[in-house]
Amino acid sequence: MQTLRDTLLIFRHQMRLSLRNPVWVVIGLVQPILYLAFFGPLLTGIAHSPGFPAGNAWQVFVPGLLVQLGLFGAAFVGFGIIAEMRMGVLERMRVTPVSRLALLLGRVLRDAVVLFVQSLLLLAAGIAFGLRAPVLGILIGLSFVLLLAVSLASLSYATGLLTKSEDAFAPLLNMITVPLLLLSGILLPMSLAPRWLDLLSRANPFRYIVEAMRAAFLGEYATAEVGAGILVATLLMMLSLAIGVRTFRCENV
Amino acid sequence: MLMIEARGLTRTFRARQGTVEAVRGVDFAVQQGEIVGFLGPNGAGKTTTLRMLTTLLRPSAGTATVAGCDLCGDAAGVRRRIGYVAQGGGTDPRCRVSEELVLQAQLYRIDPAEARRRTGELCRQLDLAGLEERRVQTLSGGQRRRLDIALGLVHRPPLLFLDEPTSGLDPQGRSNLWGHIRRLREENQTTVFLTTHYLDEADALCDRILIIDHGRIVAEGSPKELKQRISGDVITIEVANAVDRAKAVLAEQSGAGEITISGSTLRLSIKHGDQVLMSLLRALDAAKVDLVAIQLARPSLDDVFLTLSGRSLREDIHDSTAA
To answer: pTM of the prediction?
Structure first.
């Protein structure tokens, strides 16, 4: 109960700070919108080539962009915790009786809400470009985005706390996110990949999430893809939260 | 009643060169209502000890009772009863003053209405009235420091920890803050435990000083007691005439020690120089010595530290940048 109250307190505070500078929400959207505008049209041309999954190009591409938005939005929140750590804000809060779990969850919740709003805006842009998908499929897709936001934000906060400096965090983040992006089939589906690349990408949890979202956007709900996506996304979230909580509980950060 | 009782507090850090013993078995007690200063050069273990006492760092060995709660067994109890103001503060420059204070109160589970009431009260108390809606980033150094202290007081803790409370403030800001800290004790009987590497601060503010060096407490006492431990005061006079007669007068003073003369300036080492000053002036006048200048120098805590450690506290401050 107390943890819930503290979580809402931290969430409201963080949300207020984010709303004070809503320009960042928009800036976070610039990259995926650019992909939508300058990369999406290329796909409409090759959507009928062999190996390209079923559905129109936007049904394949927009789910990938949503995951990319999550990857580059939520994974970078660790910079914020490093700044808060440097300002002494985190330490100041850690001396109070506030729940350590809430210090993490309040922030993660804020990130999930921000990412959710960005996703809605991106979807609207996608629809403007020609995306057509069933409402249920879109709702399932948004749920995946939320699971992903919670996972990546938790991991990012934990990594930020452990690295303690932007100089160490930034290259680490690039080293991790770029291969994750390339091996997920976000830009082009892995059905186009040679066998070795296809196998390699199966080690990447994001691949399952992207494929599940694509299936949902096609209206294919009761499929192995969606099942695998839910399983992977849930496991990833549980693991990430566990790592995040452990790091926030640790006394000597 | 004891507010802090530390028993053998020890903290070691693992570093590349092996283990570093930051704090090596520190024992001390602080009574309720005392202002106690932890004095030592940078890297002596002041902040590490403070972080242990405020639950931010787990001791490698030893334990403490803080504000009636066991440090290791009841960290939550300690947190509820103490305020802590870190060296660099802990405010978010993007926030408004009132926002920070209300949030801090709510972190201590104080309800919003009461949190707002206390925000107003603390702003009045710490000269922040009228600044409630200002962003933290627009505050001056002194205002920001007072806000840091207000944040540490929002739950009315009986015990307040201040880590280098006046570092980075100008002289006016420092003496202003000292006034606020003294008032805390007078009005709310708050016990204050602070660290400093400013000798004048320890001298002006503290009832009692613990001197820490290389992770150990090397001396303890009131500023006066500590200074009396080392040789007495020095009286320096400059005369317009009759250096010999002046020397004779100085030598007659009770407790007089060595006299050194350079030109028309005479230096006398003496115990309790403050008590002989008046009779010395009269005697010099009676001996028809024309006095140009007179000066009484008391031993400083720096002299105390020099005697205890063989090093000057100031040298260390300039040499080292590590906290």
So the answer is: 0.84
- Measure CB to CB from residue B54 to each of A17, A87, A95 and give the nearest one: A95
| Interface probe with B: pick from A82, A96, A101, most Cβ of B within 10 Å | A96
Q: Amino acid identity, residue A28?
A: G
Query: Beta strands B35-39 and B191-196: pairing type?
Result: parallel
Return the number of other C-beta atoms located less than 10 Å from residue A253's C-beta: 17
N-to-C CA span, chain B: 32
Residue whose entry in the numeric block shows the structure tokens 């993490």: A104
Q: What's the domain count of chain A?
A: 1
A214: CB partners within 8 A, 6+ apart: A53, A55, A59, A60, A63, A64, A189, A225
Note the pLDDT of residue A221. Answer: 93
pLDDT of residue B297: 84
Chain A residue with CA closest to B155: the answer is A96
Inter-chain contact B76–A97, Cβ cutoff 8 Å? yes
ipTM: 0.88
Chain B nearest-CA distance from A98, in A, is: 5
CB contact under 8 A, A93 and B88: no
- A97–B90 C-beta distance less than 8 A: no
Domain range annotation of chain B: 2-227, 231-297
Nearest-Cα residue of chain A relative to residue B153: A96
Look up the CATH number of domain B231-297. 3.30.70.100
**Which residues, 6+ apart, have CB-to-CB distance to A147 below 8 Å?**
A209, A233, A234, A236, A237
Task: Tell me whether strands B291-297 and B233-239 are parallel, antiparallel or unpaired.
Answer: antiparallel
pLDDT tens string B113-140: 999 999 999 999 999 999 999 999 999 9
The yes-or-no verdict on residue A164 having pLDDT over 60 is yes
- The two counts, helices (H) then strands (E), for chain B are 12, 14
Q: Tell me the residue range of the domain where A11 lies.
A: 2-249
CATH of region B2-227: 3.40.50.300
Tokens of A125: 């842009």
Partner residue facing B56 (CB), from A13, A16, A91: A91
Arithmetic mean of pLDDT over chain B: 88
Q: Radius of gyration of chain B from Cα atoms?
A: 24
H-run or E-run covering A135: helix A135-163
**Is the CB of A251 less than 8 angstroms away from the CB of B58?**
yes
Q: Which uninterrupted H or E stretch holds A109?
A: helix A100-129
Whether residue B169 is predicted with pLDDT greater than 60 in this model: the reply is yes
Tens-digit pLDDT profile for residues A6-43: 999 999 999 999 998 888 778 888 888 888 888 888 88
